[in-house]
């Protein structure tokens, strides 16, 4: 298996530290707002890597942190008259729900920044003791120029960084390049040897990674926007505190763009995952993302998602694919399995892997016996699901409210709507029957008439 290492900009053979074991860290969300399509691209990408490593037989420990102490969280708390804990707790729950809807597996470890403060303080103390950091009026800063390899990940020489460095009002740094490890904050802070304050963003990931995965890890992944300064600073503080290499393979996914601009909250051009799922199912969003190589930018458009939707329908509707494979099925003996793994082993070439799946779709539809079983296994390895979409109680309630509003009549169950349509059809009241059909269609619900009656399901 070969992966592109951002640290040296080369595709390298992946060799884990311990045979057959992989320690993988992914920078998680700062929980203060809805997750958007950019987050979907990031976390689907690393979900696929996680799934594929497990598919290959590796024992993977996947750690993805939660940043629940941050300037954005504090500003939102003040604006809404809530505590930071209330804000972060609410948005963490929303984030988790979005990840589940996208069919992303939960990480093995999901540490919260506020639960790892002791480890952050300990790492800062180590850095101060070794001369790599210093306290200044309640703040703690990292001495960037003490770390000779600073800029190696991002490829930014120190002299270029110096030209753009500034000291903000209230900061008391030795050098404009130095970055904060701990920030004085007497209103929202926590006790520390340097007074009441809170951690800098960068030290959070270094401390959580060290606590849960060890001083040197196999893979550290995240969006390309984190290369500088976040990941650059992580390397500096981790290697100086630990006295050893921090990460063997740095992996970064490309941006999602709209009209060639990066999708982000600050630009106000983002689509939330929940908004997107109103129009497209999780398989479609995953397909859209995987048709592009993970390192390349993805240009968002409804046309691209509609094309992905058509591709997913072919995949999911392939003859007998939804029946899965029996335990005695030896899928590794088929050439398509080798073609699939060759594609994925080539720096996660998911577009080539999808081409293998469609070869199997064609064979399944021609009644090639092994094809639907192998299709099911390989598609599942990429995170596609053949399960019919379903609604929980709260989601069904919302759907019923929307349909009732559109029809101008209160309905408490889908069965009541089906009965209303049945009566309208019996009375040849086609206007009402059509109105019900349109309302259901707008809500993403499909009715199926048969000799045994009418059933309903979510449109896939």
List the helices and strands and how they pair.
Elements: E1 2-5, E2 10-13, E3 21-26, H1 37-55, E4 59-64, H2 71-80, H3 84-101, H4 117-129, E5 133-136, E6 139-142, H5 158-164, E7 179-184, E8 197-199, H6 201-213, E9 217-223, H7 227-242, E10 247-253, E11 256-258, E12 261-262, H8 273-279, H9 282-290, E13 298-299, H10 302-316, H11 335-345, H12 350-365, H13 371-381, H14 393-407, H15 414-426, H16 430-442, E14 445-450, E15 453-458
Parallel strand pairs: 3-4, 3-9, 9-10, 11-13
Antiparallel strand pairs: 1-2, 5-6, 6-7, 7-8, 11-12, 14-15
**Poorly predicted regions:** none
- Our count of domains comes out at 3
Q: How much of the residues is beta strand, in percent?
A: 15-25%
Largest sheet: 4 strands, parallel
Any overview of this molecule?
The chain has helices spanning 37-55, 71-80, 84-101, 117-129, 158-164, 201-213, 227-242, 273-279, 282-290, 302-316, 335-345, 350-365, 371-381, 393-407, 414-426, 430-442, and strands at 2-5, 10-13, 21-26, 59-64, 133-136, 139-142, 179-184, 197-199, 217-223, 247-253, 256-258, 261-262, 298-299, 445-450, 453-458. Strands 4-3-9-10 form a four-stranded parallel beta sheet, with helices on both faces. Helices cover 45% and strands 15% of the residues. The longest helix has 19 residues, at 37-55. It is α/β, with parallel strands linked by helices. It has three domains: 2-256, HUPs (Rossmann fold); 280-381, Anticodon-binding domain of a subclass of class I aminoacyl-tRNA synthetases (Four Helix Bundle (Hemerythrin (Met), subunit A)); 393-458, no CATH class. It is built from 16 helices and 15 strands.
